[in-house]
Amino acid sequence: MFITIAQARVRMSEQTARAVADLDVVVDCDAHVTEHQDDLLPYLDEPFASALATDVDDSYGYISSFYPSAGFLTPVNTGKAEGKSVRSSAEVREGMALLDTNRVVLTPTQNLYLGCVQHPELAAALGHAYNEWLLDTMLDPDEGLYGACVVAPQRPAAAAAEIDDRADEDGICAVFLPSGGVTPLLGKRQYDPIYEAAERADLPVMMHNAAGTMLLSFPNLFQGFDRYLSSHAPVHAMQHMAHLSSMLTKGTPERFDIDFIIQEAGIGWIPYFTRRFDHEYRAKREDAPMLEKLPSEYVSDQFYFTSQPVEGTGDPDYVASMVELMGPESLLFSSDYPHLDFDHSADLFRVLRSRLGETAARNVYGETALEVFGF
Amino acid sequence: MFRLNEEFCALANHCVHQGGPVCEGQVSGTLAPDGEGGLCYEREGEVVSCPWHGWEFDVRTGEALADRNYRQPTYEVVVEDGTVYVEA
Fold first, then answer.
1. Which of A89, A187, A195, A324 could form a disulfide with A250 if both were Cys (CB 3.0 to 4.6 A apart)?
2. Closest CA in chain A for residue B52
3. Residue A36: how many CB atoms within 10 A of its CB?
4. Which domain holds residue B77?
5. Do B54 and A284 make contact, defined as CB atoms within 8 angstroms?
6. Could you give the ipTM of this predicted complex?
7. Which CATH number goes with the domain that contains B51?
8. Does the model's pTM come out above 0.90?
9. pLDDT, tens digit (0-9, with 9 covering 90-100), for A67-80
10. Is residue A260 within 8 Å of A332, Cβ to Cβ?
């Protein structure tokens, strides 16, 4: 029996990609750095550089007190999970070697909380300082180290200027909107300058919450979410559903030709949300008159979802079903390394390769990201 | 049956969504973007909403405004000597 060269290539590639390490392209779409006060202070602009140039011996690390958080007792606090540091490009590479990735989109840790900083001018300055630090010490596209430009939603005009300034920098591949606790929700017109700038820069917008911020805007409910587990497990998806609902209702994806990347909420809520939203939109279309197609079609065309934390990997049937229902073309592999709930790259790969096939696995692990981030 | 000035249209009264009595619902217009970031009200008299779930249909074409994959069956209407006939 004869086969064509193309068929032979397919068969060979199927044989060679048995594990993540066999793939040519593996993009981690959520690899965190852990910026500390000492990293950011040297890059802070005036007037805050002078205002914060204090020699007060503050062992608390006073910068972190500007970032409101619910203050959960976490396994890192109790020493049961490692609070690993990623404050240099060498430490980024250690993580890449551990996870068999060859490109990363670097995202912040402290600045996950930026969207809740009370002082708007300070928030903008902290985002700016983070980007300076990232560009100066971390990003190196030749080595696969890319990063997202962090902006403060409290000051949309300053955020737009920040995006304009960073758009052409080597290694900046996205805008990072710290979305946890951000109020009002991100479909409001006041955020349009941010989306306009992202559209001008042809950069996707990453939306990422933090466990400590999400419930700051839901004070009554928050009283019931008094554990790290009870908050972290459901609220990432709740917060994203709130923002997504706002953006779809206000027509944000209709009005802006940009991609959005929704992070850190798992996968099972996505097929639920899109179906429920379509279902209700059919009866409540007047609440979203900007839309010219079904909400799920906007999600499918303009929204991507990073994989971590994949729930249910012990049940491959569940994971494969959810990925099929959400659409494997919308899924981007991410690790969340070095945070305590990070996913190793091997788990999801096994499920995808065995249940959805090699092409779907390759796409999720990097080929789709190449297009979304324009590497 | 609906009358739009001198024009007549007829729709099936069994909603394609879940079988509600669609033609017994309100006939109205609908909210739409005004092109300047705000909203306007348009198509007055051209939209019927099923009273069960509020699905909006174009009374002329039967199309669901939110999702053109759904369309309420329509019937041809003929007017002869002042009498209105529905072809079914």
1. A187
2. A283
3. 15
4. 2-87
5. yes
6. 0.74
7. 2.102.10.10
8. no
9. 998 888 888 888 78
10. no
